[in-house]
């Protein structure tokens, strides 16, 4: 008996996995033939107004690995990934028409461009059915205990209202995939990536893909039992085991937040339930809050005055921004964090707070330049968490206190008392002049 649709197209975006993928599961059960696509736009590597790119070499390498793992997993099931190196609105309408696609499915993402592209694609393909599922959050929109337009203005009221709600359990990986159309059965994504060389990742275990994601989840919970001490170690600045590191895979959708949540639940039942196991769920709720925060506020997450509509007393100083990026400020702890980021594509959560506070409060810089630089550099870049946290530190977002400035010397003494982190990443390097001209553009000697 024929299925509901003859030919479906799965548009992978921030959901590079086969398990707990509602959109993929639906197409697998409803289509006779299936095309699997990922779009890698050239514009991602173009320099933007903040002197950064959407994706840098570290994240691009991780994305490549994630897609290769996805391709391998699909190949094992008789499917094949097609990677299109064009802008989505330029290539997808033509591709859909050329291959006579009946239905397109994807998992919902709150990003401004992601939402715009989805609506525009629907408008360009009026005869095609479009299906969207919710696969990036703990809770579906319908599960939230308030109207989404009444989202609390800060995290704590949100967390108190949602933490008692049990997310839906992860859905199963389809046991059967429809085949691709005959004309596409020899396609392979393997040759569609440029070779990326010379990338020094944070640690050998930082490899993109669903396979590595599941291995890390198993390691951090049952294999090592490091989850039991997460709250005590999470503020460390360097190393692998002080935190879960699941953010790498979570940001690319190689693993879902529901899979992590229910692994923690199982660990609490089988091994131990304590403040640390709760605290990793607490971090998932933070991620959840910023996801819905972006859903509600959209472009206001990216403007100078932020969600609060309050312009900070900061500006843009090219020399200061360069010093901050290169780790040549007067603050050794900041320098060490920034050099770690540049070399590895990673920085600890504590480090991110310190360098953001430095850029905004010590260097009096426009916070958006820092957020855009993180977007380019971080392997675990997540649009909602990144820009939401930068607004938080800049005092224009979800922080009820409105001004989150850290005492950098005190923080260094607390989290790097022996100077080991600063020494490892050469934070004591010679300081570049913070300014080369004064406010009247006269040279400073």
UniProtKB/TrEMBL annotation:
Q: Where is the Photolyase/cryptochrome alpha/beta domain?
A: 6-146
Q: Which cofactor does it need?
A: (6R)-5,10-methylene-5,6,7,8-tetrahydrofolate; FAD
Flavoprotein among keywords: yes
UniProt KW Flavoprotein keyword: yes
What keywords were assigned to this record? Answer: Chromophore, FAD, Flavoprotein
Cross-referenced Pfam families, in alphabetical order?
Answer: DNA_photolyase, FAD_binding_7
Superkingdom of this protein's organism: Bacteria
Tell me which InterPro entries the record gives.
Cry_DASH, Crypto/Photolyase_FAD-like_sf, Crypto/Photolyase_N_sf, Cryptochr/Photolyase_FAD-bd, Cryptochrome/DNA_photolyase_1, DNA_photolyase_N, Rossmann-like_a/b/a_fold
Name the SUPFAM superfamilies for this protein.
Cryptochrome/photolyase FAD-binding domain, Cryptochrome/photolyase, N-terminal domain
**Manner of cofactor binding, per the entry note:** Binds 1 5,10-methenyltetrahydrofolate (MTHF) per subunit.
Family membership noted in the UniProt record: Belongs to the DNA photolyase class-1 family.
- Annotated NCBIfam families: crypto_DASH
What is this protein for, i.e. what is its function? May have a photoreceptor function.
Q: What is this protein called?
A: Cryptochrome DASH
């Amino acid at each position: 008996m024929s299925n509901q649709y003859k030919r479906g197209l799965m548009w992978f975006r921030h959901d590079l996995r086969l398990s707990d993928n509602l959109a993929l599961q639906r197409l697998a059960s409803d289509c006779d033939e299936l095309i699997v696509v990922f779009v890698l736009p050239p514009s991602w590597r173009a320099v933007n107004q903040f002197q950064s790119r959407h994706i840098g070499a570290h994240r691009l390498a991780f994305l490549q690995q994630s897609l290769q793992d996805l391709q391998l997993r699909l190949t094992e099931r008789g499917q094949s990934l097609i990677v299109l190196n064009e802008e989505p609105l330029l290539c997808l309408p033509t591709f859909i028409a050329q291959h006579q696609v009946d239905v397109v499915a994807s998992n919902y993402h709150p990003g401004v461009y992601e939402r715009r592209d989805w609506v525009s694609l629907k408008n360009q393909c009026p005869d095609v059915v479009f299906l969207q599922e919710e696969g990036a959050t703990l809770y579906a929109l319908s599960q939230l205990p308030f109207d989404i337009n009444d989202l609390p203005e800060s995290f704590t009221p949100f967390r108190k209202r949602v933490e008692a709600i049990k997310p839906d359990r992860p859905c199963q990986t389809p046991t059967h995939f429809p085949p691709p159309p005959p004309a596409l059965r020899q396609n392979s994504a393997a040759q569609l990536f440029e070779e990326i060389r010379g990338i020094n990742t944070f640690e050998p275990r930082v490899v993109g893909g669903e396979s590595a994601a599941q291995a890390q989840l198993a390691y951090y919970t049952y294999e090592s039992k490091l989850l039991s001490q997460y709250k005590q170690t999470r503020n460390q600045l360097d190393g692998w085991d002080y935190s879960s590191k699941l953010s790498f895979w979570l940001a690319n959708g190689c693993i879902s937040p529901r899979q992590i949540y229910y692994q923690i639940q199982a660990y609490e039942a089988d091994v131990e339930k304590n403040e640390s196991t709760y605290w990793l769920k607490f971090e998932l709720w933070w991620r959840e809050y910023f996801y819905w925060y972006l859903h509600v506020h959209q472009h206001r997450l990216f403007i100078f005055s932020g969600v609060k509509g309050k312009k900070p007393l900061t500006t843009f100083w090219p020399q200061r921004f360069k010093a901050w990026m290169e780790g040549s400020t007067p603050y050794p702890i900041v320098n060490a964090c920034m050099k770690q980021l540049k070399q590895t594509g990673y920085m600890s959560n504590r480090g991110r707070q310190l360098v953001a506070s430095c850029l905004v409060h010590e260097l009096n810089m426009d916070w958006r330049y820092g957020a855009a630089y993180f977007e380019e550099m971080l392997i675990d870049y997540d649009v909602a968490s990144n820009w939401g946290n930068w607004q938080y530190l800049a005092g224009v977002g979800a922080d009820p206190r409105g001004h989150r400035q850290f005492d950098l010397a005190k923080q260094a003494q607390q989290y790097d008392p022996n100077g080991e982190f600063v020494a490892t990443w050469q934070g004591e390097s010679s300081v570049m002049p913070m300014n080369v001209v004064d406010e009247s553009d006269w040279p400073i000697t």
